[in-house]
């Protein structure tokens, strides 16, 4: 039985580790969110149509969710190119949501074959040939994986027929309009340039010594916490920059520097202004910070 008044939601996977599927399955209001749609096919959840139906091209589709990196040729299901299946339903859909960095920019799987593997509408920051056809429908939700509440925000906005403001990479501004640094509990350490060289501690900034990319990575991980509890930086692990087109970088735990100066500075700040502020900050000794860090060093 179909639900006549609900948008038809189709979730398709390409080259993927299933991370975004499993992330969304952890959403505390998963079934409430999905109750606004008819799930015509999902790789894990019970749904109205089989994968054979999907491959046959007979499935209705209003909202297409794409998970995984895109490869034009050589990745098949039941003898059919997955790329052709995705493009068929992308043409049908009113909305296309790329979930995760792989589907959005190419992600980790792109490292295997950069010439053949990309995101659906973006190859890193570059637009693919599919962009011009589907850009008006596209919402990007990069992340490795994407936060489950990012997808629920988009789905409820679509269900409520609300406009979703987006940036130049089609990421919702409400979710990616600021950096992971925003809301980080270590911000005061960052301001005074007091770093930690140890993982897992609650004290000290993770930027200089352990490679945190929070100051120039767009995302809401420190405002919309994972499991409503935590984030990488709160747990003492640097941000890896997984929402950005250039993810993954060469090293997760190193900040690239030139003569001691970070190669990249926080978004929206000139390098000259940043260096001036850094010099002033390092000229001060904040006793309460140094005492806390000394306790951990004992």
UniProtKB/TrEMBL annotation:
Domain NADH:ubiquinone oxidoreductase-like 20kDa subunit, chain residue ranges per copy: 17-157
Cytochrome-c3 hydrogenase C-terminal domain boundaries: 176-250
Domain of life according to the entry: Bacteria
Listed cofactors: [4Fe-4S] cluster
PANTHER family: HYDROGENASE SMALL SUBUNIT, NIFE / NIFESE HYDROGENASE SMALL SUBUNIT FAMILY MEMBER
Assembly and oligomerization: Heterodimer of a large and a small subunit.
Protein name as it appears in the record: Hydrogenase
């Amino acid at each position: 039985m179909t639900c006549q008044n609900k948008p038809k939601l189709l979730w398709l996977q390409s080259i993927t580790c299933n991370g975004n599927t499993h992330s969304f399955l952890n959403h505390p209001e998963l079934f409430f969110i999905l109750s606004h749609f008819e799930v015509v096919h999902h790789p894990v959840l019970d749904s109205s149509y089989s994968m054979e139906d999907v491959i046959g091209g007979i499935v209705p589709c209003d909202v297409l969710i794409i998970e995984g990196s895109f490869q034009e040729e050589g990745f098949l299901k039941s003898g059919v190119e997955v790329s052709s299946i995705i493009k068929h339903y992308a043409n049908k859909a009113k909305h296309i949501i790329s979930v995760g960095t792989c589907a959005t920019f190419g992600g980790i799987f792109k490292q295997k074959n950069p010439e053949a593997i990309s995101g659906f509408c973006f190859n890193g920051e570059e637009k693919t040939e599919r962009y011009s056809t589907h850009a008006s429908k596209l919402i990007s939700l990069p992340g490795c994986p994407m936060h489950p509440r990012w997808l629920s925000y988009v789905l409820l906005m679509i269900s409520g027929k609300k406009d979703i403001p987006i940036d130049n990479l089609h990421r919702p501004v409400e979710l990616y309009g600021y950096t992971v640094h925003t809301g980080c509990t270590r911000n005061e350490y960052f301001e005074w340039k007091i770093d930690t060289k140890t993982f897992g501690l609650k004290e000290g900034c993770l930027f200089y010594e352990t490679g945190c990319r929070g100051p120039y990575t767009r995302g809401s991980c420190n405002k919309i916490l994972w499991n409503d509890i935590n984030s990488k930086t709160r747990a003492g692990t640097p941000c890896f920059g997984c929402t950005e087109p250039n993810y993954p970088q060469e090293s997760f735990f190193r900040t690239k520097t030139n003569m001691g100066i970070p190669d990249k500075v926080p978004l929206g700040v000139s390098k000259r202004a940043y260096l001036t502020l850094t010099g002033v900050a390092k000229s001060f000794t904040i006793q309460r910070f140094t005492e806390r860090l000394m306790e951990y060093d004992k």
